[in-house]
Design brief:
With 396 residues, this protein is of the alpha+beta class. The chain has 4 domains: 28-42 and 325-394, conserved putative lor/sdh protein from methanococcus maripaludis s2 fold; 46-55 and 236-323, Elongation Factor Tu (Ef-tu), domain 3 (Beta Barrel), CATH 2.40.30.170; 59-93 and 208-232, OB fold (Dihydrolipoamide Acetyltransferase, E2P) (Beta Barrel), CATH 2.40.50.100; 99-189. The protein is built from 4 helices and 23 strands. It has helices spanning 6-26, 99-146, 151-187, 245-248, and strands spanning 31-33, 35-37, 39-55, 59-62, 67-69, 79-80, 85-91, 201-204, 209-214, 220-222, 227-232, 237-244, 256-260, 267-274, 279-282, 288-298, 313-330, 335-337, 340-347, 350-361, 365-370, 377-379, 392-394. A 6-stranded antiparallel barrel has the order 3-12-16-14-13-17. Strand 19 and strand 20 form a beta hairpin. Helix 2 packs antiparallel against helix 3 (151-187).
């Protein structure tokens, strides 16, 4: 066999180097991952939803009669005291009368005048009959004392006198009725503008507090019972939250809560009342939801929440469960495999698929009941490239 030339050896060496370089370049690279450490710490589970502030006792001041309100004396936010005048209402003017109705009313008034004249004539006739009956009674008494008239005839004259007196009383009453009917008929013909000078019925504040809303600021005609303004005490305020019924069953009276997204630092609150009945509400997506009203009280007087007003929007986070020390793992590290919860535990530079038992969880962390111990490093955001035994490197 002829000896191998130097050139051939160089070509073979170069090929080996190239193949080795390609093999090194094509070898599996460790997958870069972000990791987190399993640790002990406190945990809270909560439900969160939008709420609104509410003055506990809102007094709605309404018009006690139909009329025209004067322009509002006060403005929203003004302080008021109990008994202070807050609304002036001018009694409603008489409605205008069309031509046909006026003619009917004129005829009715003329008929009422004639009825009064007839009643007066009846009154005069009854009085004349009474005068005659009283004279007959007086003469009958004289004749009876002389023995000329029988007692029975005297009794008849007494009956005639009493009957005539009753007829006079009846005629007087009939005349009074006809006069009132006449006055009523003429009042319907009165000029609607005749009573415009009258003013005004005064509506007073039922309690001390502040004006929350002016519902009728400009002068306008209102009916009896129309709301005009609202009064309340902003210092006596709570928060009402419309929770989903599935969330409301997890909340208890006395549960702690945090009020956020109101424009200031978070505020501490506590659940004071949960309504026993729910109601249906359609969400912005058109889905019917069953909601329950939950009421929260501020835990302590605070200058901060004093800036809140009636019907302000807030976010309420209500704690449903808490513990001071549990084993915690990031919620993002867990994923489902069938019916089990799994994580990738990092050991010796490789990802090890590990089954875990979980307890309570919130949007940030999960309570670990088994499968992991404090100090374990796990993949915080497992991706599709990971599998059991895949080499990994921590991304920094």
């Amino acid at each position: 066999m002829p000896p191998v030339s130097r050139r051939t050896l160089l070509i073979i060496a170069a090929a080996v180097l190239v193949a080795g370089g390609l093999a090194w370049m094509l070898r599996p690279q460790p997958a870069p991952v972000e990791t987190a450490t399993v640790a002990r710490g406190p945990q809270e589970v909560w439900v969160e939803d939008l709420g609104r502030t509410r003055v506990r006792e809102v007094y709605v001041v309404s018009s006690p009669l139909a009329g025209q309100t004067e322009r509002a004396l006060l403005h929203a936010g003004d302080p008021v005291k109990a008994g202070q005048a807050v609304v002036l209402i001018r009694p409603a003017a008489s409605p205008l009368i069309d031509t046909r109705s006026r003619k009917e009313l004129v005829a009715a008034a003329a008929g009422a005048d004639a009825a009064v004249s007839l009643a007066r004539a009846e009154q005069q006739r009854a009085r004349a009959e009474l005068t005659f009956a009283e004279g007959q009674w007086t003469r009958g008494q004289t004749l009876a004392r002389s023995g000329v008239m029988a007692p029975q005839l005297l009794d008849q004259r007494r009956l005639s006198r009493d009957t005539a007196a009753a007829a006079v009383a009846s005629a007087n009453a009939a005349l009074l009725v006809r006069e009132r009917e006449r006055d009523s008929a003429h009042s319907r013909l009165a000029d609607p503008a005749a009573g415009e000078g009258r003013c005004c019925e005064t509506v007073r504040a039922p309690v001390s507090g502040r004006i929350l809303r002016i519902l009728r600021e400009s002068a306008q005609v209102v009916q009896a019972g129309t709301p005009v303004l609202e009064i309340g005490d902003p210092a006596d305020m709570d928060i009402v939250v419309e929770l989903l019924s599935s969330d409301a069953v997890q909340v208890k009276v006395g549960s702690l809560a945090t009020i956020r997204d109101w424009g200031g630092a978070p505020l501490a609150a506590r659940v004071s009342r949960i309504e026993p009945a729910g109601f249906t509400k359609v969400s912005a997506l058109g889905i019917e939801e069953q909601r329950v009203l939950v009421y929260l009280d501020f835990v302590r007087p605070d200058q901060a929440w004093g800036r809140l007003g009636h019907d302000y929007r807030v976010t309420a986070r209500i704690v449903t469960w808490s513990a001071k020390s549990v084993v915690l793992a990031p919620a993002s590290a867990l994923f489902r495999q069938g019916e089990d919860w799994m994580v990738y535990r990092v050991a010796a530079g490789k990802a090890r698929l590990t089954k875990v038992q979980v307890g309570h969880r919130n949007e940030d962390v999960v309570e670990v009941l088994g499968g992991l111990t404090p100090g374990d490093r796990i993949v915080a955001y497992p991706g599709d490239r990971l599998a059991d035994g895949v080499a990994v490197t921590e991304r920094r």
